[in-house]
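Whiteboard transcription, Tuesday session. T.W. wrote the C-alpha cells on the left side:
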C-alpha cells in the first residue's frame, strides 16, 4: 500500500468504520457537493468514478476522486457481492479435490498392478544378471586354468628338449 499522509490515513480509518449504507450516502453527498455523477461506478467500478471526478473537478480530483473511487468499489461489493465468483471458486476447488480423490481411487489398482509387474521383472532381471556373473566367473576360471595348463605344457616341452632348466 502506498504511503498515506496523516489526513489520508484519518479519512481511510473513518471509511473503514462505515457501513455499506453509510458509504453509499457519502458517495451521494460527494456527488452533490461537487456537482458530478458517479452513476458509472456500479458498471465500471472505482476507476470510472475517479475519472469522472478528474474530468469535472480537476482541482479536487486526487482527494475526492480517490475517496469516491474506493468508496464506490466498497459499496458495489457490499451491495452486489462478488457476482458469485467466490462461490464459483469454492465449488470449482471442491470439484477439483473430488476429481483428484476419484482419480487416485481409480488409478490405485492400476498402479498396484504396475508395481507388482515391475517387482516381478526386477526379480527376473536380477536373477539373469546373477547368472551372467556366475557364467563370467566360470569363463575367468577356465581362462586361468587354460593359462596354467599352457605354462605347464610349454615347460614340459622345454624340459624334454633341453632338459630341466
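and on the right, the sequence the group agreed on:
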Amino acid at each position: 500500500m502506498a504511503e498515506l499522509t496523516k489526513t489520508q490515513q484519518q479519512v481511510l480509518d473513518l471509511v473503514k468504520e462505515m457501513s455499506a449504507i453509510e458509504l453509499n450516502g457519502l458517495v451521494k453527498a460527494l456527488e452533490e457537493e461537487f456537482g458530478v455523477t458517479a452513476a458509472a461506478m456500479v458498471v465500471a467500478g472505482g476507476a470510472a468514478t475517479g475519472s469522472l471526478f478528474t474530468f469535472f473537478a480537476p482541482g479536487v480530483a486526487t482527494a475526492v476522486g480517490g475517496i469516491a473511487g474506493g468508496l464506490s468499489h466498497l459499496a458495489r461489493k457490499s451491495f452486489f457481492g462478488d457476482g458469485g465468483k467466490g462461490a464459483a471458486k469454492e465449488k470449482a476447488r471442491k470439484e477439483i479435490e473430488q476429481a483428484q480423490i476419484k482419480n487416485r481411487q481409480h488409478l490405485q489398482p492400476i498402479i498396484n498392478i504396475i508395481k507388482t509387474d515391475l517387482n516381478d521383472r526386477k526379480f527376473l532381471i536380477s536373477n539373469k544378471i546373477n547368472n551372467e556373473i556366475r557364467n563370467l566367473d566360470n569363463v575367468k576360471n577356465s581362462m586361468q586354468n587354460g593359462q596354467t595348463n599352457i605354462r605347464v605344457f610349454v615347460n614340459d616341452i622345454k624340459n624334454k628338449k633341453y632338459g630341466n632348466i
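Someone added at the bottom: The chain has two domains: 6-80, 100-160.
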